[in-house]
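Input record (one chain):
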Amino acid sequence: MMKNLYNNLWRILVAGFLLVACTEDKGNYDYRNLTELEISGVDDNISVLTHNRLQLTPDFGTSTLLDDRYEFEWKVINQDIENEVETVIGNTRNLDYEVALNADVYILYFTVTEKDTGIYWQKSYTLTVSDTTSEGWMVLCSDEEGRARLDMVSKVTGDTYFDLLKNYSEISQWKGPRKIQSLSSTMTDAQSPFYLLTDDGATRLGKNNFEWKEEYNFAYEAAANGASLRPYSITAAGLGKMIVSGKEAYYCERGMGIDGLYQSVVNKTFDVAPYVGANVAASMYVAVYLLYDTTNKCFMAYCPMMAYEDLGSLEPLVTMDKMEEIATSFKGDNGVVHSVSYDYPEGYDYVYMENTKYDPGNAKMGTTYTILTKDGRSYLYGIQLGDLLLYADCTYVLGKSYYGDLSGCTGIVEEGTLYAFSSLKNYMYYAVDNTVYRVDLSVSPLEAEQQFALDGETITCLKFNLYRESANTSRSYDLVVGSVDGAGKGILRVYEGLESEGDFSSVTPEKYTGFARIVDATYRERNN
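The corresponding structure, as predicted from the sequence alone:
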């Protein structure tokens, strides 16, 4: 019995010792149960539009997570490409993210990590991003510092999205916006059909959310001096396209398996005006382009494929009279058509040039209008440009379609005057300060008729947007007007043109606000 009592006493002493030891060591170790963190409050399938805010608030149930003890990460992975690309879109407990992802389907991961131990919990979701910018007005603005800012009026949502390029530091600070335009897939990479043209540089923009990559820079499209090229616009016709940078013209051939570059200067002995004429009304093969020589003050024709041996190894840059001779030798009576008769002008100063789809003779050749001045008077010339071989839709190679004296029109060539020519009827429009005028080119003498005035505003953009999709054909007759008010806020108006037959004096326009000073506006069609 004494032995049992001794053993029990010994066990009690040992137990007491261990209890004291554990008590004294309390605080050296953090003993606690590891429980699974429950994350809820966010749907498994999430849909969002680009440029909208994605706001998610997860629920952790009864768990209390202190921000100073935990790290949070929201990360997306593109599940449709072989090499998975991870993009972190947030590092806070609650996600508040302006969606800059391309339209696609992603896996979204939310990870909570305990800082001290590295233990983490993760939950995944399916994130579907749709593009708000797949159709609507691309509005190119100049902000208060002269920076090029691209905004978008989305037809998808009805909302306007501002400064779409702000996240691309390489191009977001470019100044001197010139033009925003789109080219067909035959004239550029189908994945990047848009061009941003500025004084500081030029670049393509991607079809998904206008994304930008270094290889989109215009320098990669030129054989030499690419980094210094600053196009005013890009004119595409036939199997090629042309630009003017500074006072020099460049040509790039593209099509039939050829992905060409802008080569050497076209005009080696004279300067050219900043716009290039071409037929934008029909498909062509051997296109004839129109340049204006500002050194010798005359029109010049450029048909680059004439230099090919199959076409006689001819000089591709010639006077208009010489181009008529060549056209006649190639196509006889179909070489040249004259709706009106005039001599090609010499010694005139260039003011403005614009390509239209207006085709008075149903020859599938749109008219290129050019405003020139001499001795204090102003003149308008209409020239039609076609296809040297007539393999496509054109009926003639060249044509003279209009001549008129604009000198009686109020403020026609004042500094800051803007011009636009209709493809519906034989009308031209111009804006002086806050007022838009129309000139009926079918009557003589030519006179200006006021269409409307925008009180307290200055007109900064006047144009007709030429659509490519057949469903939008009639919209090519709508007048697009950008203006700025006294506070420097830009306003975009679109006046319906088909039913009004080009009389915009009583048309109530579509109106969009919130822009900076508008320089250009181009409609993005759904096919892009």
